[in-house]
Amino acid sequence: VYEDFEEMLATETLDAVFVATPDHLHEKPVLRALEAGCHVFCEKPLAMTSRAARRMHEAARLARRSLAVDYNRRFGFAYEKTMKLLLA
Predict the structure, then answer these.
(1) Own/partner long-range contacts of 70-73 (Cβ < 8 Å, ≥24 apart)
(2) Tens digits of per-residue pLDDT, 38-65?
(3) CA atoms within 13 A on the CB side of 70
(4) Which of 8, 21, 23, 68 has a CA between 20 and 30 Å from the CA of residue 46?
């Protein structure tokens, strides 16, 4: 367990990271993880501004790493109804 992502990136050899910080704090860990050579899966929204999103996208392109955004719909009405029907 790490309380600081910089320590984690310096200590571990990672292939990928999942960024689940509060929305306004996504950019720094995403950029650092890409810089460290990790693929990144980030909670939505990716960024608070289009400029920040473009910085992250460009960093992923330059690092030749994947940057993906989680768009989780498990609590949407249709998804909940489907799960209830499947589990009934």
Answers:
(1) 70/41, 70/42, 70/43, 70/44, 71/44, 72/44
(2) 999 999 999 999 999 999 999 999 999 9
(3) 14
(4) 8
